[in-house]
Structure formats: C-alpha cells, structure tokens
Design goal:
- The protein has one domain: 3-Layer(aba) Sandwich (Rossmann fold), CATH 3.40.50.150.
- With 203 residues, it is an alpha/beta fold.
- A seven-stranded mixed sheet has the order 3-2-1-4-5-7-6, with helices on both faces.
- Helices cover 34% and strands 26% of the residues.
- A hairpin with a 2-residue loop joins strand 6 and strand 7.
C-alpha cells in the first residue's frame, strides 16, 4: 500500500485529485485560512509565504501579488504553475532564497511531520528570518481521527507517509525559541483531522 501511495504521490495531478476527494476540497483548511490569515488583507498590504505548497491548492486564497508558494518537489511546483498565475519556487527549509523580513505571515499545511527534528528546527529558524517582526505562522498538522466512527480517517492517518507525527508539546519545542504558540485547536477537513497552530514570531 505504501508503494502504491508513493507512486500516486509522484503524479501531481493524480495526487491532487485524491487529496481533494478525501479532504472534501480542503474545506477545513480553507476555512482556517479565511478566519486566521485573510483578515490581515483588510488592514494593509501583506506578504504571504506558503511553505510546502505542494500542488498549490491554497494559492487561490491569496491575492496573486501577495503570495509566494515554495515546495521541495519540482514536479508539484510545475503542476501548480499550470493551474495558477501565482508565484511558485522550488526550495526547502534549509536555506530559503529570500531576504530577511520578506513576508508577514506563513502558511504550513502538513509539512513538518515529514521533517526530522533537526530539519524542523532549521526550518523554524529560516522562517523566523524571512518573516518580518510581528509575523505569524498558521500551521496545520495531521493528527489521529478524533471520532471512533471515522474509520476512513483512521485508515488515512495510518497510511500517512510522514515519519515524524508529533505530540502538541513537541511542535512548540521545535519552533522555540523563534516562535511561540498563540493558540491551538482541531479541525476536520473531509475525513482528515488536523491540529491547527497559530504561532507568533519572537522579535
């Protein structure tokens, strides 16, 4: 089964379709973005980094001029660029190719549980560098299905390809001393449950 999922994940269009189905077109994630990040657009121009943007599913949640999506997969980035006029680039958390204070907020959806502790801490340091003072992160990470009857969600969690799914306290530890957790809550998107974190940059 893991080999099957790996094969699908290497096909961006197929992977994007599968994820849209099991997550009901990302209704939960889109609602969190609308509630937590979109209000920022009402005050003054803001710059948003979508770290680990994958196939660019959330680019449409942001104005084109305010958004930059980055992902390690060249195939995903190429696919995202065919669907949207937003900006995308290939890079990872080791060294983001942006100047200091280039963004006001970052979105991270289902990325950190694929990173070991060392890379996650380097990523937190890099995000701190490229976010301006007062910057924030909205992060969503996979958690086990919260309801016993959500058997498809339990199966999806079991099949998840991330090797570093962590407990709540561990995310705070990994992002310290660069960020502090302002708030944490849970959502469901389709059959998938997520822990949602709102981090604030330590200035």
């Amino acid at each position: 089964m893991q080999a099957f999922l790996t094969n699908i994940a290497q096909r961006p269009a197929l992977w994007a379709t599968l994820r849209r189905i099991v997550e009901n077109n990302y209704v939960g994630e889109r609602a969190a973005i609308a509630d937590e990040l979109t209000p920022w657009l009402q005050t003054k121009p803001r710059r948003f980094l979508d770290f680990g943007c994958g196939t660019g599913e959330f680019a449409s949640s942001f104005p084109q001029h305010s958004y930059m999506g980055v992902d390690l997969s060249q195939g995903y980035v190429r696919y995202a660029a065919t669907l949207s006029d937003h900006r995308f680039g290939v890079m990872n958390g080791n060294a983001l190719a942006f100047g200091d204070a280039s963004f006001d907020a970052a979105l991270i959806v289902g990325v950190i549980h694929h990173l070991d502790d060392a890379l996650a801490q380097i990523t937190a340091r890099e995000l701190h560098r490229v976010l301006a003072p007062g910057g924030e992160i909205l992060m969503l990470e996979d958690i086990p299905a919260q309801d016993w009857w959500n058997l498809p969600g339990r199966l999806m969690h079991w099949l998840d390809r991330g090797d570093a799914i962590r407990q709540d306290a561990d995310y705070g530890r990994l992002f310290a001393p660069y960020f502090t957790i302002q708030r944490r809550w849970s959502i469901r998107s389709g059959i998938c449950d997520y822990a949602v974190y709102r981090f604030s940059r330590v200035d």
